[in-house]
Amino acid sequence: MRRLAALFLTLVAASAQQPPAAIQRTMTLLATSTPAQRNPVKVLFYGQSITKQDWSRLVAQDLRTRFPHADVVVENRAIGGYSTDFLIQTVGHDVYAFYPDLIVFHDYGGEENYEKIIAAIRRNTTAEILIQSDYPTWIPNPADPTNPAREKREAWGDRHSNEWLPELCRKYGCAVADVRRPWYDYLRAGKLKATDVLRDGTHLNDHGNQLLADVTKPYLKYAGVEARGDLVKTTKPGQWKDGRLRIEFEGNRVELVAAKSENFHASEADVLIDGKKPSALPELYAITRPTDTFAVDWPAVNRVTAEQPLLAEDWTLRVLETNADDSKWRFEVVGSRTGPDGEGVSTERFVSNSGRVVIDPGEWGVNRAFRLRKQLTPVGFEVRWSVLPLFTDVYRAPRVTDPSREYVTLAASGLSNGKHVLELVARGTTAPPAIASVRSYRPPVK
User: Fold this and answer.
1) Rounded distance, CA 46 to CA 82, Å?
2) How far is Cα 283 from Cα 339, in angstroms, rounded to an integer?
3) Which of 120, 306, 314, 421 gives a 20 to 30 Å CA spacing to 62?
4) 56: buried, middle or exposed (CB in 10 Å: 19+, 13-18, 0-12)?
């Protein structure tokens, strides 16, 4: 086993000779973190059930071990059973508000929706993306009978992984982690079946989890150069004039980094984006992913939208009636600030009385969950989600207690991806808040 493990690492090293340029902003943040400057880094694992497995924890643990001085925040928001045809519905809830620096991504399903997911992420965030190719789940054995269906499936996987994914990444500026080829070589060299590293023909056993972690980690290396430094810009804020600070930026997100000073003043400033309070901009509110179905850890509703401006509040959808196979619900929705907001049925487009909740018939996941588990949702079952404010109307200077860390305040996120003006208007007679820098984010796809 040790010999095979060493062989696999050699095969992986051969396929990942150069650290991908497309993820070097994240790797720069990690590698340049020091005890005196702990850079914040957000990493998201996203996809379906394979991404939920233990290999992702091993990779996250490796990042924290190799870069102990970085402030690494890791989220795994993968959803089991959600191929690209379903994940396209949840990506807006899961990714945009979190706004990660790096996404490690893998999914199965149709290539059209696969591309739509990647395009949506690149359109709405500056996240760098490392996409894993598919590992083989079957390899031909001369001693076994021929299996045309398996051969066809693996041939599709070869083309998808070795041709289509690299082309997709060239188009959108992403990186590919070549899992498939070293995995094939490893199985053949060890005279192993594909199922020897799988627990059920698809998902990984302990051996497979270690392999996928080992094949991913070499791609997460620092190359010594930062790529696409124009997407995320950190600039000096300039000078206050008559109690006002005016900052021009381009992108869809802007943050304020507090100055590090021993002299703390609890000073405040009103925030304006293009002359308006951020709270007055409808695009700066985010809806979280709705909670799961009764029987399966799938969202009961894949996507919730709105037709009218939102409020920061919590929402509850309560089941009033179901039919025999959960294909039709009658329900009501209640907002913590809006209050009771109407009733609907899941087979029809629902628009709440306020217009703050819109659910299309194709967004429900409950009938699919019933078909899998044959468990009927009980009357009174509740689905919840929240509306989060992605802005700050009043900037309050934070007390900097640890000068090695950044104290970052989100001014606005979710803006149109273009040129904007951020203004701070000092409150009171004390000195205005001390701002060290302003960080703006411009997604690469318009």
Assistant:
1) 10
2) 22
3) 120
4) buried
Helical packing angle, 84-94 and 111-124, nearest 10°: 10
Note the pTM of the prediction, 2 decimals.
0.95
Please answer whether residues 150 and 139 qualify as being in contact, where contact means their C-beta atoms are separated by less than 8 angstroms: no
Q: Which CATH number fits domain 232-281+391-441: 2.30.30.240, 2.60.120.260, 2.120.10.30, 2.60.120.10?
A: 2.60.120.260
**Residue-wise pLDDT tens digits, 80-127:** 999 999 999 999 999 999 999 999 999 999 999 999 999 999 999 999
Quote the pLDDT of residue 143. 74
In which residue ranges of the chain is CATH 3.40.50.1110 found? Answer: 2-219
pLDDT in tens, 52-65: 999 999 999 999 99
Computed from CA positions of residues 113, 116, 121, 124, in that sequence, does the dihedral angle turn out positive or negative? negative
Tokens of 146: 């021929």
For residues 310 and 282, the answer to whether their CB atoms sit within 8 Å is: yes
Q: Give the pLDDT band (50/70/90) at residue 397.
A: confident
Greatest C-alpha distance within the chain: 85
User: pLDDT for 274-300, tens place per residue?
Assistant: 999 999 999 999 999 999 999 999 999
Residue 359, by phi and psi: left (phi above 0), alpha (psi -120 to 50) or beta? beta
Q: Which residues pair with 319 in a beta bridge?
A: 331
Residue type at 408?
A: V
Under DSSP, the state recorded for 347 is T
Mean pLDDT of the chain: 94
- Residue 190 Ramachandran class (φ > 0 left, ψ -120 to 50 alpha, else beta): alpha
Every domain of the chain with CATH number 2.60.120.260 lies at 232-281+391-441
